[in-house]
Amino acid sequence: FEGATLQNADFSGSDVKHVNFTGADCTGVLFERVKLEHPNFTRANLTNAVFRNQKGNEKIETMDATDALLQNVRFEDAQINGANFTQAVLTGTVFIRCLFKQSVFAESDLQGVQFVDCLFEGTQFPQAQAQGAVWSGKTRFSRCTFEGTNLDQADIRGVEFRDCKFHGASMKEIRREGTVFDSDCNGMAMRAARAD
Question: Where are the beta strands (DSSP E) in 25-154?
Fold first, then answer.
């Protein structure tokens, strides 16, 4: 499927193992109860795609979404293991009841992203850009748990953390002006970046 146009395709109930979607137009694609093992979405357009009921045997395993466009995507009830969202644009995307294990959001654009009832285990957010912006809404983490998660050097200005828990999480050298922490931050190492 490299470079293919797959707009509004329905992959529900499929086994998608080692499939290459590099540069594909996957706008509006539905992945429901799909076994996604090692899919490559590098530079793919997944705008308005839906990933639903992706757990148990149908979890998302080592997905590569490097430099992908994931605007207004909906991930619901998904287990996401070893995903790479490095330099991905996720503006306006919603994650509901997702479990992230050993996933990476390095230098990704998380403006306006909503994380609700999510668990992050060993997930990395180094240098992620989550600054709240008027045009895309605020980035919010609601009722999320961060275990051994790295948010070092992230730009989280204006981001809201509502009723979240941090266990062994690190936020060193972050930019956090205007950030709302209505959460249990006892298990977190935090240090703000110096203003230049």
Answer: 30-32, 35-37, 50-54, 60-61, 74-81, 94-96, 99-101, 114-116, 119-121, 140-142, 145-147
Helix (H, G, I), strand (E, B) or coil at 160: strand
Cα–Cα dist 103/10, whole Å: 25
Find where tokens 């090692």 sit.
38
At 76, list the tokens.
Answer: 């619901």
| SS3 of residue 57 by DSSP | helix
Position 178, amino acid: G
CB 156, CB 132: distance < 8 Å: no
CA distance readout (Å), 55 to 30, 69, 87, 136, 188: 15, 23, 25, 29, 28
So what's the pLDDT on residue 190?
57
Region 92-100 average pLDDT: 95
Model confidence band, residue 84 (pLDDT cutoffs 50, 70, 90): very high
What integer pLDDT is reported at residue 192 of this predicted model? 52
Q: What is the DSSP letter of 72?
A: T
Task: Write down the mean pLDDT value for the chain.
Answer: 85
Q: How confident is the model at residue 193, as a pLDDT?
A: 47
Find out whether 46 and 23 touch, Cβ atoms under 8 Å. Answer: no
